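quick one, 221 residues, struct below
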Amino acid sequence: MVLNGLKRAAALLACLLAFGGAQADTVKINGFLGGRSAGVDLDTPRDGPFSAGEFTGLWNGNSFSAMCVDVMHDLSFGTTYTNYTAMTPVAYGFSATQVGLFNRLYTDYYATSHTNGVNAAAFQIAVWEITYDGNGALNHGADAFKLGSGGNTTAKTTAASWLSSLTPLATSAWTFTVLDSRGDSATQDLLVAIPVPEPETYALLLAGLGLLGFVARHRKA
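---
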């Protein structure tokens, strides 16, 4: 629909502005998107019980949502962090296979992850599995990323079902940016996914960028 296309174009435009606006990116996570989360029990590479779901907050002042791709660091809701750097997935270290798997996961299951907290947690588990083991077998019960015996059972079985069906999707249905937190106060690194605009919205996006350029030139004059 045209309305959905406009929303996607607007979201992409906002993210492009955030990406190019400063050397260091500011990130503030307010909580889980829609309040959806469930408990997970991590074993490897970090041991302990945690809540899992999709984060929502502000990136350079713009509303956004993101998934965690770093279980080794913590992140506090409501805190503004100024040590993030926006990177391409390749620059961050993700392989083409991993990006293809993220593409497939978002294409097939992202909408489902918004239906309840258990599916939100399952989606986060799948993102972690691709992050740590995406160049090999996708099994969240073994290898570099491994779940423990606790946590929400349905979230674990749902994630396993989704992962078992994943094959890399080369077609760019989504664009990804990784927000990499660095320094002594490093927090969780975040994966931001934006749907590629439908063909009919490219003209709207380009028109918006052109208008921004016109306004910038007018201000300089």
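The CA atoms of residues 9 and 205 lie 6 Å apart.
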